[in-house]
Automatic annotation (TrEMBL):
This is Putative acetyltransferase. Residues 4-151 form the N-acetyltransferase domain. It comes from Hephaestia caeni. Keywords: Transferase. The keyword Transferase applies. PROSITE patterns: GNAT (PS51186). The lineage of its organism: Bacteria, Pseudomonadati, Pseudomonadota, Alphaproteobacteria, Sphingomonadales.
Length: 176
């Protein structure tokens, strides 16, 4: 079994991350999203899974800033996207290791919520649910729009905006 270590991405990893995202997704939109998030200063955390033997990058998860309001007050929140693992490394828990590490780091950093747009069957195993995202005002609202409450609860008050970083608007335009 390949030995993988999860670590923060460094500037020198940018080319390999771009390559990974262009390999894992049919469109270049996700690669462009990560670049734009970084350029806009909206990338909060990028974790990579590195193959200890070959030094190759096997996977990536990115977390970006969101503007979220609860009861009229801002609530610290991030969006998880994209998540990608190179085909040769799939089905051995690499994505799970990346998501788990991202959750731990964002929880320790004090974020209240982590949002994701994806398959409930996959993200549900980490505790994401559409119920936790319900009531937030987002163009992505629906069964695939999920959230994870990182600190065990949310402040009282009506759920307001849940705005992704501006770079996501371009992704919505390019995705079918
Ligand atoms: C989705 C992806 C990140 C999973 O990576 P991985 O390292 O193989 O994931 P893990 O090993 O942690 O988990 C594998 C499990 O996830 C399940 N899974 C993978 N994609 C899934 C999906 N779209 N819906 C539901 N389950 C899914 C697999 O069936 C497998 O299930 P099992 O544990 O019951 O066998 C990888 O397949 C990938 O990069 N896909 C292309 C990019 C993509 O679609 N990213 C997600 C959206 S941003």
């Amino acid at each position: 079994m390949k030995r993988i270590v999860v670590q923060r991405a460094a500037p020198k990893d940018a080319y390999d991350i771009d390559d990974l995202l262009r390999t894992c997704f049919a469109q270049p939109a996700e690669a462009m999203l990560v670049k734009q998030l970084a350029m806009d200063g909206d990338l909060v955390l990028a974790l990579i899974a590195r193959d200890e033997a070959s030094d190759a990058i096997a996977g990536l998860v990115a977390l970006s800033k969101m503007h979220v309001a609860i009861g009229g007050d801002p609530a610290p929140a991030v969006a998880l996207a994209p998540l990608a693992v190179m085909p040769d490394y799939r089905r051995s828990g690499v994505a799970a290791a990346l998501v788990t590490a991202a959750i731990e780091q964002m929880r320790d950093a004090g974020a209240l919520l982590m949002f994701v747009l994806g398959e409930p069957g996959y993200y549900g195993r980490f505790g994401f649910s559409s119920e936790s995202a319900e009531g937030f005002d987002s163009p992505y609202a629906g069964p695939y729009f999920m959230a994870l409450e990182l600190q065990g609860g949310l402040p009282c008050g009506p759920r307001g905006l849940a705005d992704h970083a501006p770079a996501f608007a371009a992704l919505a335009e390019t995705d079918p």
